[in-house]
Amino acid sequence: MKKAVLASAVLAALVSTSTLAATVYKDETSELKIGGRAEARFNVSDNNEEYDDTTGDQTDSGFDDKSRARLSISGKTTISEGLTGFGKYENEVSSGSNIKTRYIFAGIGTQIGDFSYGKQDTALVMITDFTDTMATFGADADYALSFNAGEDKQENNFAYKGKFGGLTVGANYLASEEVDSDQYSLGAKYSFDFGLDLGAGYAGGKSADNDVSQVDLGAQYSIADFTFGALYQMTTDDGANGDNDGYEVSAQYKFEQWTFVGVYNYATGNDGDDDAVDNFALEGVYKFNSNLRTYIGYKFEQIDDQDDQLQAGIRYDF
Fold this sequence. Notes:
By secondary structure, the protein is mainly β. The chain has helices at residues 2-15, 125-128, 140-145, and strands at 22-26, 30-44, 50-51, 58-60, 63-65, 68-80, 83-94, 99-110, 113-120, 154-164, 167-174, 183-191, 196-207, 210-223, 226-237, 242-255, 258-269, 274-287, 292-301, 309-317. The protein folds into two domains: 1-120, no CATH class; 121-287, Porin (Beta Barrel), CATH 2.40.160.10. The protein has a 16-stranded antiparallel beta barrel. Strands 3-4 form a two-stranded antiparallel ribbon. Residues 1-19 have low confidence and may be disordered.
């Protein structure tokens, strides 16, 4: 009987878009939630243009559809007092019919924190989130510099996360399927009562038998309708990339149903000899309600061989 009720609830949640992350099943010990989004969006830039190598004729225009949809299923169960089990699965379908798994992990929650394994975020993500604030662009410096142990959605990931008052700590070990490529990360964030968050993290290990390391330092401050974020990253690679660093800054302003965001990203490359990232972006987001929003953003590229980009979309969360 419970299986029939659960199946009916899951089906109802899949065809309904009236709630956000709906609880489709719950009893004395367990609950199941389903949520997701449908997001129609597009990008316009000369970066999207392609040409035939033989004739030189243009084959692709500057318009690129980037529409996508996500489905997330998460569950939690109480084992005993102070002990829980949890799991999450989330996929994404793009306009090109590509399906990818964003998250798939399960674990045990205890009074000293959560222990889990699977494809999930690393400890440094709670720091990089300070400046990863845009619906369109942003986080370019982080993407250019970070190693696997400093990024989100990493496979073979043994994770720990604990929260003790204003202090949040995390640790990860990535057991790579490639030889000599295991990595680990440690991170901490402290949230003060007056709107200030400070974070620091370290990632290290091997990448293709090269020693690598990464240091992240971040801060976020909220006052009234403004939120400011800053991130500094420094990486070392014994291989060809050498030593590089970069930074991101973000500013948000909320006015009624509008959110206006500006970010700047900079990162070096090739052992500090070149600018791998140098851009700033502006964005406006309008929320009709908790389910529906629309947005538009423009990225101003400062590197010679990169062109500016415009991106816009409409998103429905369920």
